[in-house]
Amino acid sequence: MRLRDKVAIITGAGSGIGLATAQRFAAEGARVVVADIRDATAQVDAIRAQGGHARYVAVDVSREAEVQRLVAQTLEAYGRLDILVNNAGIEIPRKVTDMTEAEWDRLMNVNLKGVFLCAKWAIPAMRQGGGGVIVNVASELGLVGGTEIAAYAASKGGVVQLTKAMAIDHAADGIRVNCVCPGPVLTPLIEATIQAAADPEAERRQIIADTLLKRFARPEEIAHVILFLASDESSYMTGSIVVADGGGTAQ
Ligand SMILES: NC(=O)c1ccc[n+]([C@@H]2O[C@H](COP(=O)([O-])OP(=O)(O)OC[C@H]3O[C@@H](n4cnc5c(N)ncnc54)[C@H](O)[C@@H]3O)[C@@H](O)[C@H]2O)c1
Fold it and tell me: Can you identify the CATH homologous superfamily of domain 7-185+217-245?
């Protein structure tokens, strides 16, 4: 068990990549706080039914008071915090000329400000325990551009840079900060983007064609990478940007 007795907060863990990560972490012995804006008690019950330790905490990662409460409740329940996975994210597929100011603000507040707020409140708690690990979930779109995805790409580019800056600031605290950049992963988030396209099936075929492996990732395949970055197996890595994109950005 690679995470035996570690305490982990995973944001956006009610669905997709975050849920697969929560299930994997629990199977590896972690005590998992499933933090999501939407109710995830059923997901937590399923983890418990498998013998894992998990609890649901409702949080909007873009609101500081709620994030502060999330960390406080984690310390209250488990007495420490070892791992933070900043996974919560939303996508609003638009070019800038089609995007409202409110949409821009909402996307940035969840995808980028949420990472800042969770790190801000998690780091002091990790320091108390002698160190910790942060894994940020960015995207291949934080490294390259894409069509009608301007704000999302900007937010994920911000997460990549925030990863490096936080790694520098907190190495001396014994806190490693790394980032995973997934390519297309079959989850409700990408399905909604596909359905919003003028021709959804053509969009789906194009996404697959743009990878070298000619398929979507399964959420579990990204959870493996997050587990590696959260565990001692990646003990010499900090400030690293790990790409798991089926080869999409190799071309
Ligand atoms: N699916 C992909 O193809 C893909 C590719 C690259 C990166 N990502 C990134 O992976 C992460 C997870 O995405 P997913 O595909 O699993 O999406 P998903 O929609 O399946 O899950 C995202 C979860 O985040 C939660 N969430 C949304 N806003 C929140 C908020 N303000 N506070 C707390 N929780 C909130 C949602 O309720 C949901 O449970 C996101 O950051 C996304 O940008 C996804």
Answer: NAD(P)-binding Rossmann-like Domain (3.40.50.720)
